[in-house]
Amino acid sequence: MTDTVQAEVIMSFVVSEELAFRIPVELDFASADPFAVRLTFDLPGDAPVTWAFGRELLLDGLSRPSGEGDVRIEPASPAHLSDVFISLQVGSERAMFRVSAAPLVAFLDRTDRLVPLGKEEVCDTLEAVLDRILTEAPAG
Question: In the CATH scheme, what architecture does the domain 4-136 have?
Answer without folding.
Answer: Roll (2.30)
